[in-house]
Specification:
disordered C terminus; 12 helices; single chain; 40% helix; globular; six-stranded antiparallel β-sheet; eight-stranded mixed β-sheet; alpha/beta; Rossmann fold
């Protein structure tokens, strides 16, 4: 038979096919052994995870978008519908803006210092232009100018006054957002101290009774006594209506809730959980806030929770309260256990944000569904600041070398690394780039699954990972 040479193309194709088959088989065997190896030798999980998934690690305290308890929402809608408040959406907007832009009242000492400084400046200018003017006339003129300037430039703090109609407006504006902030703050205790089962609650400045609802959603019927204190009789009546579903004959949804207009007098009466939410901003001066905080701490047997708007003013007020309880000594000590910061700070030192040239508030956020009213979006975000103090020492990490830092900004997720702005246990603010190679796979995955407000474990600090120190 004549020789018929095979085509070059055909020969190369068959060889390529043979190589591909061999490669596929080899790859299959390799993958099989890799799979067997993974099954036979699973990577050990870090101790700090305590058996949890990375997305549910112990430092995660953020909550999904919150809804008001159904009974509370239905009662609020019933009351709002029955009240028929004129121009409700516009009044809700004004109240919201008023509360968010609110500042602390200017202290008398500060006002006097400002007045003396301004008077001195005006006298110096007058002396340079002095003619034949009568000194008494000049003094009167300068004094009037000082008073006029102080009135023009000084923030005029006014207290909120509640009647039945104003209470309904406030409820429409703040019920859902206030509930979301308190619920998120209380979740920190529930997550980090699962053995805590409070039997008594004191809510100072209880308003709509939001704290009682948020506490009940965390710990259910463990409470045997909930004391709600608010100086406004109208607000106490409104809070009781909410508990009864806007039906006077009905049983309250949460039992053992008692409304008072004054704090219990005896300093020996203590409560497992004491809360003051958006209350310090309603006190007219620093001395009043300090006395209130000390009184509340005396009545605390386990945890004191303070919550305010996420503004510079809210931050300053809570940092003042923090310093009062952590640094100052009481004249009469009824409970010798000192105050320790439980959250959000990861240390007991001064807030590093206060040392920055441009002070920004250390605030956090919680998404929530507002009341279904005209002008309300389906989802809103509550920015708030909170402080939790404990009678017990903060728990030590079970694993040697593990420290927990607080995320103070949203996490930026990038390919194989994440950017984390954190408040660290050494009292410094750090912008850390976390990678699996330098911080371990578990730490990296925890950081990637965390967000603003959560805590993240930091096994070790690597100098080249620190982009900059915000405290410098």
């Amino acid at each position: 038979m004549p020789f018929e040479p095979r085509s070059v193309t055909s020969d190369m194709a068959s060889r390529s096919y043979g190589v591909c088959v061999i490669c596929q088989r080899a790859a299959g065997v390799k993958m099989m052994f890799r799979g067997m190896s993974a099954v036979a030798h699973p990577q050990p999980q870090a101790d700090f995870l305590k058996g949890e998934l990375h997305r549910k690690h112990p430092g995660v305290t953020n909550l999904k978008t919150l809804r008001l308890p159904e009974e509370l929402q239905m009662a609020a809608q019933s009351i709002i519908h029955g009240a028929q408040v004129p121009q409700l959406p516009e009044r809700v907007r004004k109240v919201t803006n008023f509360l968010w832009s609110r500042k602390r009242a200017v202290e008398d000492v500060t006002l006097r210092q400002k007045g003396v400084s301004l008077e001195k400046e005006l006298w110096e200018k007058a002396m340079q232009k002095r003619g034949d003017i009568d000194e008494q006339v000049l003094e009167d003129r300068i004094r009037k100018r000082v008073f006029s300037e102080l009135r023009r430039t000084t923030y005029h703090w006014t207290p909120l006054k509640f009647d039945e109609e104003m209470g309904v407006v406030y409820m429409a504006a703040r019920l859902a957002g206030g509930y979301a902030a308190v619920r998120r703050a209380l979740n920190e205790i529930k997550k980090r101290d699962p053995s805590f089962a409070p039997q008594s609650l004191l809510d100072f400045g209880s308003g709509l009774g939001t704290v009682a609802w948020a506490s009940h959603s965390c710990w259910g019927d463990t409470f045997k006594e909930m004391v709600c204190v608010d100086s406004s009789g109208a607000m106490n009546i409104l809070a009781e209506r909410l508990l009864k579903g806007d039906d006077e004959r009905a049983e309250p949804h949460i039992k053992q809730v008692y409304f008072r207009q004054f704090l219990p007098v005896s300093p020996k009466v203590q409560f497992d959980l004491v809360v003051a939410a958006f209350t310090l901003s309603e006190l007219p001066d620093a001395k009043g806030r300090e006395e209130a905080v000390i009184t509340l701490w005396r009545k605390t047997s386990s945890y004191l929770v303070l919550v305010e708007n996420g503004t510079k003013e809210g931050h300053q007020m809570l940092m003042e309260a923090r310093d009062t309880l952590v640094k100052k000594q009481e004249k009469t000590v009824h409970d010798p256990r000192p105050a320790s910061v439980f959250a959000p700070c990861s240390h007991q030192m001064m807030c590093p944000k206060l040392a920055q040239e441009s002070v920004t508030p250390c605030n956090f956020q919680q998404k929530y569904h507002p009341l279904p009213l005209p002008g309300h979006n389906d989802r809103q975000t509550e920015k708030f600041i909170y402080l939790i103090l404990s009678r017990t020492e903060p728990a030590k990490a079970e694993t040697e070398g593990v420290e927990w830092a607080r995320l103070i900004a949203p996490v930026l997720r990038r390919t194989r690394h994440v950017h984390c702005k954190m408040c660290c246990p050494d009292g410094q603010l750090q912008h850390l780039v976390v990678t699996a190679r330098k911080h371990s796979r578990d730490v990296y995955r925890c950081a990637r699954n965390s967000d603003w407000g959560d805590q993240v474990p930091v096994i070790q600090k690597v100098e080249e990972d620190v982009v900059h120190s915000e405290s410098e």
